[in-house]
Design goal:
single chain; alpha/beta; Rossmann fold; seven-stranded parallel beta sheet; 7 helices
């Protein structure tokens, strides 16, 4: 049985990804900053007959928490096949370049960039033991510098200096990570789930968590001939999915 770790999986898109992975028969470690919330999510999945899910306390902004999560999962398995770096924050308001505070940038980068680094580095050894290791960094087309430089981009006027820059930085980490693992079976990609209706955006999105989950799942389960080091947003490019960095 393959195994996967999903961060920020107690609700919204992360929860749906954990659900869809479990439905595929994959053993899922459901990462949640608050363990009680994680246990509630697992119990909810069990009511659907999905018993191949376990809650793991995991605060991606805390070194000790990440270390403890790695130790806990290491007691159960020496192989991790899939890592979904989903947890993240928007960063609050204001988001204007001239008004957002340095503290906003620090806390947002701590979650959206450093958190991805912490978790990836902590679990890379278990991933290397897999025959088909996959790393998905959940990004946003809003992190595309190319698109946000184009006045014809449909979200061109939806700027947010804090959140957008954090996703751009995470995207570069994705590119470099994929490069360093290019001669292996690793597939490392950044996936935008689309503008999804969740707590994250005050339910202003128009997409469903089910569709968002499917978009992430598509690349979490690609075979060894699949892409790596790419940025995908099916919402922005329905034809091939790939969008510019």
């Amino acid at each position: 049985m393959k195994s996967a770790l999903v961060t920020g999986a107690n609700k919204s898109i992360g929860y749906e990804v954990a659900r869809q992975l479990a439905q595929k028969g994959i053993y899922v470690y459901l990462g949640s900053r608050n363990l009680e919330s994680g246990l509630e999510a697992v119990n909810k999945l069990k009511t659907e007959g999905l018993n191949n899910v376990v809650a793991i306390q995991l605060d991606i902004t805390n070194d000790e928490s990440v270390k403890n999560a790695r130790a806990e999962i290491g007691k159960k398995t020496q192989v991790l096949d899939i890592l979904i770096n989903n947890a993240g924050i928007y960063g609050g308001y204001p988001q204007e370049a001239l008004n957002a505070t340095a503290e906003q940038f620090k806390s947002t980068f701590d979650a959206n960039v450093f958190g991805v680094v912490r978790v990836t580095q902590a679990f890379i050894d278990l991933l290397k033991n897999s025959d088909e290791p996959r790393i998905i960094n959940v990004s946003s087309s809003q992190g595309s510098i190319t698109l946000h430089s184009d006045p014809t981009y449909k979200y061109y006027d939806y700027k947010g200096a804090v959140y957008l820059s954090s996703k751009s930085a995470m995207n570069m980490f994705t590119v470099v990570l994929a490069y360093e693992l290019k001669n292996t079976n690793f597939k490392v990609n950044a996936i935008c789930p689309g503008y999804t209706k969740t707590d994250f955006n005050g339910h202003r999105g128009h997409g469903t968590v089910e569709d968002a989950g499917k978009r992430i799942m598509k690349y979490a389960l690609i075979d060894n001939d699949g892409p790596t080091g790419k940025f995908f947003s099916e919402e922005n490019n329905p034809a091939t999915g790939e969008i510019p960095w």
